[in-house]
Write a structure and sequence with these properties.
It is built from one helix and 34 strands. It is mainly beta. The protein has two domains: 332 residues, Tachylectin-2, Chain A, CATH 2.115.10.20; 141 residues, Exo-inulinase, domain 1 (Jelly Rolls), CATH 2.60.120.560. A hairpin with a 2-residue loop joins β1 and β2. It is globular, with a radius of gyration of 22 Å. The protein starts with 18 loop residues before the first helix and ends in a 7-residue tail after the last strand. The structure holds beta-D-fructofuranose (FRU). Pathway: Glycan biosynthesis; sucrose metabolism. Belongs to the glycosyl hydrolase 32 family.
């Protein structure tokens, strides 16, 4: 095999003297680096990987390219925490130095087996700029945190007949004494699929076939990335990141999307009977999420708060992206809802609460809020349009606007000096039945806002890159409403 070379395919082991320190230095003074979100010290972060509560600690790995804000040789970076709040950076977990992972240790998930954490990932192989293949690989972390790549890697070499080199992102689970691996794949007719391998020991795998998943996705869907599967409240849930969907009103407005599917999985017979499926997050920057079982067996999720093929203002500081906060998933009224993990309450500092009434006006709730949680209830609403402006200043603002007549809520991020991603539009929206009251929970952290509406029924995850003075919060209404809120400044313990 001819090894395809390009400068972006070097590992951290090839760093020049002081190169990492210089990169870290370049972003150290950034006012956009999140304080409590997991982010790279330098370089580019994308998908969360290998998430686990293992041996009394939370482990988060993520896709990481060290040498700038581009997608190059992907490593697995590693952070851990006892409480989902205070994160400690550990040495890079997977550095792709082997032939079977010659162009990156791509995404994957973990499962605990006999007291060890099995980390499955994809060894990406590139022959040239266009042609590629993929190997599935295993690394094992023991209780002391030592990570070793499996001696028989790759555990699955190449891709099965009928699929292109785009086969990746293993998710392994166990059912009735058999291990199953889901992989995102592309058929040779260039449409997306999920394929399945099985194993009795989690190390030796055989190809089982394609999952029959009747989602009615359009032919334009050319790839399904990062499949995830779990049971929740007695239902089977599949979360997957399709590429190539067409935007519709209120849905699939980003270049790449994430959907969840509720239904019934019969993995032995390779079927997933679809009950319903929806887009998971309505914001600008959300992709490739992964879930895992938390300390109390609850289902937690981290997503990549970013989007591919787009330049971000922090690129010039040699770092890009962060993960979302951890979110707890539940199924309510046939919908998957996301709420901030309750552990995040530990970040709260002194609460400040107030009540106010608005009548055809806007009011400032705060003028210097950088990293905070805001719980706000808008009640007795007699307004057609109303909402909240975050990162607000004379010149800037992220506008969340509810529109009763249109039964919709929109988020607009056009109004920033450092606006970006305009080629994909500056507004995102969701359908929403608006009654007399709306509750909203918001997490803001310097360059990210995560907005949970009506107990997580609608969620917007979005990055913005404000000027230093854009730290205000405003509420507005074209009619009347009552506003009650509690605001907590949040600690920024995170020194990643
Ligand atoms: C999703 C993805 C995965 C792949 C990884 C590479 O964002 O494209 O399919 O494994 O990123 O970094």
């Amino acid at each position: 095999m001819n090894r395809y070379t390009e400068p972006k395919y070097r590992t951290i082991l090839d760093a020049k003297e002081n190169e990492p320190e210089q990169l870290q230095e370049k972003s150290a003074s950034s006012t956009w680096k999140p304080a409590y979100h997991i982010h790279p010290g330098y370089g580019l972060l994308n998908d969360p990987n290998g998430l686990a509560y293992f041996n009394g600690e939370f482990h988060v790995f993520y896709q990481w390219y060290p040498f700038g804000a581009i997608h190059g040789m992907k490593h697995w970076a590693h952070v851990k925490s006892a409480d989902l709040v205070d994160w400690e950076r550990l040495p890079t977990a997977l550095v792709p130095v082997e032939e079977y992972e010659s162009h990156g240790a791509y995404s994957g998930a973990s499962i605990e087996i006999d007291g060890e954490l099995y980390l499955y990932y994809t060894g990406n192989i590139k022959y040239n700029a266009e042609e590629r293949s993929a190997n599935q690989c295993l690394a094992i972390m023991d209780k002391d945190g030592n990570i070793r790549k499996h001696e028989n890697n790759p555990i699955i070499e190449g891709v099965p007949a009928g699929y292109t080199g785009h086969v990746r992102d293993p998710k392994v689970f166990k059912k009735n004494d058999t291990y199953y691996m889901l992989l995102g794949a592309q058929r040779t007719n260039l449409t997306g699929a999920i394929i399945v391998y099985e194993s009795s020991n989690a190390r030796d795998w055989t190809f089982k076939g394609e999952l029959d998943l009747d989602l009615n996705l359009p032919e334009s869907c050319y790839m399904l990335e990062c499949p995830d599967y779990f049971e929740l409240n007695g239902q089977d849930v599949l979360v997957v990141s399709p590429q190539g969907l067409e935007a519709e009103e209120h849905t699939y407005q980003n270049l790449y999307n994430v959907i969840y599917v509720l239904g019934e999985m019969d993995i032995e017979n390779l079927t997933f009977k679809v009950g319903s499926h929806h887009e998971l997050d309505k914001g600008f920057d959300f992709y490739a999420p992964q879930t895992f079982e938390g300390k109390n067996k609850e289902r937690l999720l981290f997503g990549w708060a970013g989007m591919g093929e787009m330049d971000y203002p922090s690129d010039k500081e040699e770092w890009a992206h962060c993960l979302t906060i951890p979110r707890k998933l539940d199924i309510v009224d046939g919908k998957l809802v996301q709420k901030p993990a309750r552990e995040l309450k530990k970040l709260r500092k002194q609460a400040e609460s107030a009540e106010l009434r608005l009548y055809r006006e806007s009011k400032v709730l705060c003028s210097d809020c950088e990293q905070y949680e805001l719980e706000i209830t808008l009640d007795a609403i007699e307004s057609d349009t109303f909402g909240i402006e975050l990162f607000s200043s004379e010149k800037e603002g992220l506008v969340l606007k509810f529109n009763r007549a249109e039964k919709a809520v929109t988020l607009n991020r056009e109004n920033f000096e450092e606006k970006f991603g305009g080629e994909y539009g500056y507004e995102r929206s969701s359908e929403l039945e608006i009654g007399d009251a709306v509750n909203i929970q918001i997490f803001v952290d310097r360059s990210i806002a995560e907005i949970f509406i009506n107990d997580g029924e609608v969620v917007f995850t979005s990055r913005v890159f404000p000027m230093k003075e854009s730290t205000g919060i405003k509420v507005f209404a074209d009619g009347s409403l009552d506003c009650r809120y509690t605001k907590y400044p949040l600690m920024g313990k995170n020194s990643l």
